[in-house]
Design a protein that fits this description.
Elements lengths: L21 E6 L4 E5 H19 L3 E9 L2 E6 L2 E6 L5 H6 L5 E10 L4 E5 H8 L9 E10 L2 E6 L2 E6 L11 H4 L5 E10 L4 E5 L4
Parallel strand pairs: 10-12
Antiparallel strand pairs: 1-2, 3-4, 3-6, 4-5, 6-7, 8-9, 8-11, 9-10, 11-12
Length: 204
Amino acid sequence: MTHDESIEDRILPLINETREFFIVAYNKKSHQLLLSIKRLEYIRAWKRIKQIQTEDVIINAIVININKGGLLVRIEGLKSFIPNSHITTQEKKIIKIDQIIECKLLVADERKNQLICSNKCALLAKFTDRFKIGNIVNGEITEIKKYGLFITIHGIPALLHISEIGYKHIDNINTKFALGNKIQVKIIHIDTKQGRLSVSTRDI
């Protein structure tokens, strides 16, 4: 099965083609079997998904729809969702239908037929040399709150808490920083599950 094939694309057999089927039911009176290719493909797809989840690897998904909440993608023939909060800023700028996007599984619930993925977590896993605790990196201020700054570092969001901005007390954070400003920070925590960083300007 290729990236852009859904399970539905694979269920129509050709004449004289030998296929495997899933036995759904058997009618004893008529001696007839109720068979399903779709069910078999579905079972196989979830088996591969569980293997991917166990191995915790980066996977390629194809974008099949874009909406306000995020991206609908296809993995192993199954539909999956990547929330906006788990898409890097770089990908948001260039994303389009039929594009391949790297991601990691966040939720894989076969009973609910639910798959949720993260592009940010894939980026953190892919560039481990870039995202290491103690690394000094440059970022851009994207949001200013009373409790700190939100910074984007290589497409990954980072929180610079006000308690980590030097050693001096800051009365008004808005007078000291502005949106779009570049800032040098040190990575002090990496949340690989949510694709987020915590940073500090202390001891740089």
